[in-house]
Design brief:
By secondary structure, the chain is mainly alpha-helical. It is built from 20 helices and four strands. It folds into three domains: about 90 residues, Orthogonal Bundle (Fumarase C, Chain B, domain 1), CATH 1.10.275; about 280 residues, Fumarase C, Chain A, domain 2 (Up-down Bundle), CATH 1.20.200.10; about 70 residues, Orthogonal Bundle (Ribonucleotide Reductase Protein R1, domain 1).
């Protein structure tokens, strides 16, 4: 294996390069490594590249190893990587002559490129349902709160009345796009490098399409250099994780603020909170804090992968295949934690509807409705209407009067100055316009917070969710069918060989 080299690997190389990589693959890649080897040997048999007796022997040894699991042998960093450890084990079981033929028509370069794609594919398949669950929770919460009036904020200042449903639907739309980005990235990931060799293909008459299908890929990667030299799918997924994290962070930051005593809009469930060691009154929303912090790790993961990749030659390099993927796995761990923590927090979140409505009816967020009505009913220019209402608000603030204390007299007094006239309104007219529920339902434009528009948005998001769930389930089935196909292909081999071939 190291015939070209005159010495064994230095202990420093083993400690910091070979051993960590081997142990990681042992934990993460064992099953995929076995299946990849099975598929490759089946292809070698199909193309009559190695003898059938060797095919039988290798397949049986691989299946025995798959049954025994990772405990079948102790890994040795002197063998450089996990594949060589598996190969050495097979050599110890069936001899060099048979085991040595398993690696015909391939390189570790295309092998590891394929394993990386299979492992990443598995990780994304596991993340999908958690994002889908988040979307479902957001839609359900929105459905339950189409009448929950609250203040919408711009520049962190009270702006206009909306509903909690409207806010949550905004977040749900963002998370839907996040999911679509992950979904689209999967379609570019799921192509097979195996058969590209070191980078220049092979002179053996291999069938790359057959191998790709056995391993659940859509097909082989066209160019052999691109197959082993590219890990740009890591950048794509890491970027998508970072975008998802950014959207979640902004949402969670709002919840964090709303959970303060000063706002009192929401309350994190006791099961999602922690207490103070000294202040007995404290209930700390720690899940929100950890979610916010963990989203920062997603950005650092992307930057780390990007930095690792950006300045290397376009070919196989260990910094590409060995180092760039490490931060991807850390990002996966953080995404998993973020989604689990957020889904648990939202599922048990207490919403203080009365407090939301009270604030909205008193914090001047409804006064835009006054300005709009002056335009519609009194035919004023919007700028004049804006001046009148702005002056009324200024006087109220100076006197310590809330928005529900605005009177028709105040409006008319200012109207004499800016519009040179008064308005034939009743106090009931003013009170109606200043009512948050009226303000919300009076919004007619597409995508506004009215119950009608919210219902339309909910319906569209539900249909989109149902469609994406189906796509996810189809992808799971595709991978399951590829494994069944792999087993079936081995069963065909069994029929053509002597009795006793134990599949």
């Amino acid at each position: 294996m190291r015939e070209r080299l005159k010495s064994a690997p230095n202990e420093v190389v083993c400690k910091y390069i070979f051993e960590p990589s081997i142990l990681d693959d042992s934990n993460r890649s064992f099953y995929n490594m076995i299946n990849l080897n099975l598929a490759h040997v089946l292809m070698l048999n199909k193309q009559e590249i190695i003898e059938k007796s060797d095919v039988e022997t290798i397949l049986q040894a691989l299946l025995d190893l798959r049954d025994k699991g990772t405990e079948a042998f102790e890994v040795n960093p002197l063998y450089e990587d996990y594949y060589f450890n598996i190969e050495q084990y097979l050599i110890s079981q069936i001899g060099l002559e048979s085991a040595g033929k398993m690696h015909t028509a391939r390189s570790r370069n295309d092998l590891h490129s394929t394993i990386d794609r299979m492992n990443v594919r598995d990780s994304i398949i596991k993340i999908y349902p958690k994002v889908l669950k988040l979307r479902s929770i957001l839609i359900n919460l929105a459905s339950e709160n189409t009448e929950t009036v609250m203040t919408g904020y711009t520049h962190m200042q009270p702006a206009q009345p909306i509903t909690l449903a409207h806010y949550l639907l905004g977040v749900a739309n963002a998370v839907e796009r996040d999911y679509k980005r992950l979904e689209e990235a999967y379609t570019r990931l799921n192509y097979c490098p195996l058969g590209s060799g070191a980078f220049a293909g092979t002179s053996f008459n291999i069938d790359r399409q057959y191998t790709a299908e056995l391993l659940g890929f859509y097909g082989p990667i066209q160019n052999s250099i691109d197959a082993v030299a590219s890990r740009d799918y890591l950048l794509e997924f890491a970027a998508n994780f970072a975008i998802l994290g950014s959207n979640i962070n902004r949402f969670v930051n709002d919840l964090y603020i709303w959970a303060t005593n000063e706002f009192g809009y929401v309350e994190v469930d006791d099961s999602m909170a922690a207490c103070s060691s000294i202040m007995p009154q404290k209930k700390n929303p720690i899940t929100l804090e950890h979610i916010k912090a963990k989203t920062s790790h997603l950005l650092s993961g992307f930057v780390s992968i990007f930095t690792c990749m950006k300045g290397i030659p376009y070919g196989h390099c260990r910094d590409l295949g060995g180092e760039s993927i490490k931060m991807y796995w850390e990002s996966c761990t953080q995404v998993d934690a973020i989604l689990e923590l957020l889904n648990g927090t939202l599922s048990s979140l207490k919403i203080k509807k009365d407090k939301m409505k009270l604030n909205t009816n008193t914090n001047f967020s409804t006064v835009t409705e006054l300005a709009d009505e002056l335009v519609k009913k009194e035919k004023l220019s919007f700028r004049v209407a804006h001046q009148i209402v702005g002056k009324v608000v200024s006087e109220c603030v100076e006197k310590g009067i809330n928005s529900d204390g605005i009177t028709i007299e105040m409006i008319n007094n200012v109207g004499k100055i800016y519009a040179l006239r008064t308005f034939d309104w009743t106090q009931d007219d003013v009170n109606k316009l200043l009512n948050a529920t009226y303000s919300v339902e009076n919004k007619l434009s597409l995508g506004s917070p009215s119950q009608k528009e919210s219902a339309n948005s909910i319906s569209k998001l539900e249909k989109g969710l149902d469609k994406d769930v189906q796509v996810y389930e189809n992808r799971v089935k595709e991978l399951e069918l590829s494994e069944i196909n792999l087993e079936n292909e081995m069963s065909k081999i069994k029929l053509s060989y002597a009795e006793g071939f134990n599949l």
